[in-house]
Specification:
The structure holds two protein chains of two kinds.
Chain A (H helix, E strand, L loop, with lengths): L4 E4 L3 E4 L25 H16 L20 H7 L3 E3 L1 H4 L23 E4 L8 E4 L17 E5 L2 E2 L5 E2 L2 E3 L1 H4 L6 E8 L8 E7 L3 E5 L5 E3 L1 H4 L7 E7 L8 E6 L1 E2 L8 E2 L5 E2 L7 E2 L3 E5 L5 E3 L13 E7 L8 E6 L5 E5 L5 E3 L1 H4 L15 E4 L8 E4 L8 E5 L5 E3 L15 E7 L8 E6 L6 H5 L11 E5 L5 E3 L14 E7 L8 E6 L5 E5 L6 E8 L12 E5 L6 E4 L14 E6 L6 E5 L5 E4 L7 E5 L5
Parallel strand pairs in A: 37-43
Antiparallel strand pairs in A: 1-2, 3-36, 4-5, 5-6, 6-9, 7-8, 10-11, 11-12, 12-13, 14-15, 15-20, 16-19, 17-18, 20-21, 22-23, 23-24, 24-25, 26-27, 27-28, 28-29, 30-31, 31-32, 32-33, 34-35, 35-36, 37-40, 38-39, 38-41, 41-42
Chain B lengths: L2 H10 L3 H16 L6 H6 L26 H19 L5 H17 L3 H14 L4 H13 L3 H14 L4 H13 L3 H14 L3 H13 L3 H14 L6 H11 L3 H10 L10 H7 L5 H14 L2 H14 L4 H13 L3 H14 L4 H13 L3 H14 L4 H13 L3 H14 L4 H13 L3 H14 L4 H13 L8 H14 L3 H13 L3 H17 L3 H15 L18
Helix pairs in contact in B: 1-2, 4-5, 5-6, 6-7, 7-8, 8-9, 9-10, 9-11, 10-11, 11-12, 11-13, 12-13, 13-14, 16-17, 16-18, 17-18, 18-19, 18-20, 19-20, 20-21, 21-22, 22-23, 22-24, 23-24, 24-25, 25-26, 26-27, 26-28, 27-28, 28-29, 29-30
Classes of the chains: A mainly beta, B mainly alpha.
Amino acid sequence: MYGKRTVVKCGRTIPCRKKGSNNNVVSQTGQRGIGGTDGNHPRVWLRLSVAILVCTSTTLACGTDSNVTSGNATVSRSIEARSSGWFIDATVETGLDFMHVNGMTGEFYYPEIIAPGVALFDYDNDEDLDVFLVQGQPLGPGKVSTPLRSRLFRNDLTFEPDGTRIVRFVDVTDMSGIRTTAYGMGASVGDYNNDGWVDLYVTALGRNQLYRNQGDGTFRELAEHAGVDDSGWSVSAAFLDFDRDGWLDLYVGHYLNWDRDASPPCFAASGKRVYCAPQAYFAQQSRLYHNDRGGTFTNVTAAAGMAAQFGPALGVTTADFNGDGWVDLYVANDGHPNQLWINQRDGTFKDVGLLSGAAFSEYGKAKAGMGVDAGDFDNDGDEDVFVTNLTGEGHDLYVNDGSGTFETRSAVAGLAYTTLPYTGFGTAWLDIDNDGWLDLITVNGTVQRIDALVRANDPTPLRQRKQIFRNTGHGRFEDVTGLAGPVFDGLDVGRGAAFGDIDNDGDTDIIVGNNNGATRVLLNAIGSRNHWLGLKLVTAKRSGRDMLGARVAVLRDAQPMLWRRARADGSYASANDSRVLVGLGASTVVPRVRVLWPDGRVEEWSQVPIDRYTTLVQGSSK
Amino acid sequence: MTLGAIRLLFLNSASSGARVVVVLTSALAICTCSPPTEQQASSSRSRLQSPPAHHALKPVMLPDLSAMSVPVQKQVRDRFELLTRTTEDAAARASDRADAYGELGKLLFAAESYAEAEPCFFNAHALAPADGRWSYYLAHVYRLQGESMKAAEFFERSLEQRPDDVAALFWLGNTYFDQGRLDEADGMFSRGLARRPNAAARFGRGRVALAKHDYARAIEHLEGALTLDRNATVIHYSLAMAYRAAGNLEQAENHLRLRGDAEVRLTDPLIQELEELLHSEVVYERRGDRALARGEFTAAVTHFRRGLDLAPTSLSLRQKLAVALSVSGDLQAAGQELLEVLRRSPEFAPAHYSLGVLLLSNGREDLAIDRFMAAVRYDPTYLQARLQLANALRRRGRFQPALRQYAEVIKMDPRVPEARFGEVLALVRLKHYQEARKQLIEAVRLHPDRPEFTHALARLYAAAPDDRVRDGQRALALAQELVRRQRSADELETMAMALAEAGQYEAAARSLGEAIAAAQELGRIDLARSMASDLRLYEQHRPLRIPWREDPSWDHP
């Protein structure tokens, strides 16, 4: 047992902390560790007092029960199990101390409400996930006392003798050589030079930056040399090997042409000032860069057939949508038709968004389109798409029939009306409870001020709660946000979200980037209770580069095959853990694993151990 | 919380910390019973106390009015005052109070203050449950806030009072659809159709059928909806999906080409009433924009003028008024308004642009060029102004400056085909045929749906004076493609040019003869005469070396 708990019979578990405990530590022993919204002492006491007040003012039998004695609290396991959340906020304990600054001036500059993205990647190859957090800049006149920079945090994950995992993030930005200067938007990761060290691409309002990982804890900025120093306004980017030559190429999603001094003000019907809609601006052309292998890229946007069709791109994800073994691109465009770029296998792409059924809402109109992810939620072997949208629009589920043709099933899946109240950004398909079915999480936050929050003098009156949707396994989802824990009651202006196994316990955790707010570390508290398979897929070359785009089929006896893929893109302006995590439920049977490598080769392994991470090297299967 | 309970908690609390909590909690419980402070009392001016408990009404608060335009502030305050007086009047009937709440709610709804409108409609409905208006408005408030279950509940209640309300049936059907309740949604749409044939309900039935994978029925309903409302281009998308699922790809692609964003018309008097409520310059500007888009120019002028009455310094309103005046034919008044805008703000780029367009329409091209130049000077991102500047420069024979402007437009937005077309025309005028060919090849690849590029490329291959550019076989291939699509005088003339370049003079002469006949049939006598002189060339086995006599025009769809 770790820490004291006091149980109130109303049904809430409010964990406490012993005095003198290490505030930078979180423990995960399979039982609940320290939790609460931020572990802050006064807030814990406040919640306790509120709970007492509520209980004593109701007709429920509140106060003491046989499980609580003064001064010597015990825990009723059944109450704990009912009231435990699925995620805990471990931000303070892990030491991830970062506040995003959006540079707002009261002038309703549009970029204020768009960022930030976040990245999870193992930059030092010590097999745990480190974090990169994107920072903004002032947008109006005036200076800040301390330069604002994006930050790199190293994960010093350790294990206690009893198996407890200690996650601790250390700010290593200064020693890393990363010096971002522009107004940061998002981050994407990939080993573009095949040296085995994951590199970092930072998008911005301004010039983008490419940080080559030098393998010694430092990075070198080489965007201009590499030819990818896009200027303008880009948000999401993705590394992908579109020509299957073994080198990662780069797609950079550009957003809008925005000029601070030439932007007209926008007003609501009442005359009050509001942020303009994206339709008030022209879209910027997104770019596709081909990796020339020598540390440089060539802009092949026009040659690839992508120059004349683009929208204001926000979310980007890459996957093989038509099952032909070649990676395709899905781009969520803000207020414009989304695009499904199908790889023509000759260096070009064709946008089939309209005919494929993945461009519009079921109603036939473009929605906002911010966050996006591809995943096989129905375990039929193909990649389905989920896109987050604005309040009042509802998020969209596009179900793939295997050929790259989609049907919008948001309403019948239970995802339309449940998401109507929210403006969604970062999102992902993830198996929260490792039952073998992909669930959904969205981080939310509006783009227009909420009057109630303005009245409450909230400095960032765009806050909304996050949402979790559990896959029932029958093509439907249920909103289980209420089960997620206090973490999901909190209001934030959610934007980027990176998904990955931060504490290496076999379930998916989350880093949430909040606009003009604190970044949050949310650790999964339930997934590791089920069995799982963890895979790191790497090239046979000496470098051992992550094989982004590789697809994995997990073959199980008398159960549907599970398909997953190695990817770092998706969500919103963020980069995810590129390892593949597959939930196996209660089964302890070791499955067979078939890998479809990005170059088209297929291999199979029969004895991949479960409940741990295994590295599969291309060409090494027996 | 009783004092006894507090004492018990205090005594049972072991730690000092817990005792502090108890004290704080108790203090909180006690404090809530204290009389209001002065600050609390002053805030009640914008907040009504809850009426007696048996009405179960919600407190009404005003939004932050300071950010709203002054006329709207006055409207809201006046209405709130009226509500206050009515609720304080002991003699006021429940229906009067309901109306007072409801009318304030309508104003707040129109001002998009939905959170504040909600208690107004809630109270109005509670006081006058038989008046279906309030539950209808409340349902829309919930719908716009994304609270689908509540929206459904109140649309249902509204229909209890107004069972024949087609709009309510449509909206409830939509709400059920969003919740995945397809059968119930279909029921509502069917009821709406039974009341009155309407495209909205038919569209709804089509969407339900599509969601249920009943594609034949989906096509039937969606085609029916289109028949009822041809302007509702949004229907084409669902129809395309239905045809696609039914295996008819050709029809699917046809309907995708016709797809648009124009909504299905729905007669909804209660919502339309809200659109007339607010007196703000923004609202009049929006009404003017909508009227302009619908081609109702006189109405647009009226709306913009009303907006200007409220905000005489609004440059945007005055500029749009000028646009509305010009399209309704009053060019002089339009010009005066634009000059007034520029008098107030010489850097207002849209006014320079509009003035340029007016001058163009009067044939004063040089003056128009000056205005377009001013527009892009003050707003370098003004793409439309830059494109018009480029076109005007080209027409005046200033090809190099035109090329620079076209290049800027393409850099700003590579999707603008008109800029590429103008660029090619300028290059040909400068006799830069190789560069023109290169740009045309790129343009054909980028814009396969624009025959202007294919046509121009065919002619360049057939008749460019530079023999490094000409290619008879390529010209022929393109010309055959053009003629397959359309056999008009222009395409047949192009075919003739291609045949001549390929050495097939007899065939060229035959094709040109057919073109001449087609031109004469259409009354294009000058064209027919020009072609006749070309015919003599072919009869002498001599090819043409002029791609086009006059610059071809860009077809604005």
